[in-house]
Write a structure and sequence with these properties.
Layout (H helix, E strand, L loop, with lengths): L28 H13 L2 H7 L8 E3 L2 E3 L13
Antiparallel strand pairs: 1-2
Length: 79
């Protein structure tokens, strides 16, 4: 993390992501590879890390909308 919580500049971020999968099965390796691939391709969290998506936060305070400042530009995919 970098910055200061008191100054409102604190930022966190990932350094990377590793997944370890341990499978015990009599199925052929190709079927297991396909299963893992399908799991990765349909995981919302993993896909959001690989292909960043816009993020919006909404909040309410005591049942009323709470305006939140937006000091960062929207995340866009380069390409």
């Amino acid at each position: 993390m970098k910055g200061s919580a008191l100054a409102g500049t604190l930022r966190g971020g990932p350094l990377g992501l590793e997944t370890e999968i341990a499978i015990e099965s009599d199925e052929p390796p190709e079927k297991i590879r396909h299963l893992i691939k399908m799991g990765e391709q349909t995981c919302f969290t993993l896909q959001s890390l690989i292909h960043p998506v816009p993020v919006k936060t909404r909040a309410t305070l005591n049942g009323h909308p709470l305006d939140l400042p937006s000091d960062e530009p929207p995340v866009t995919e380069e390409g």
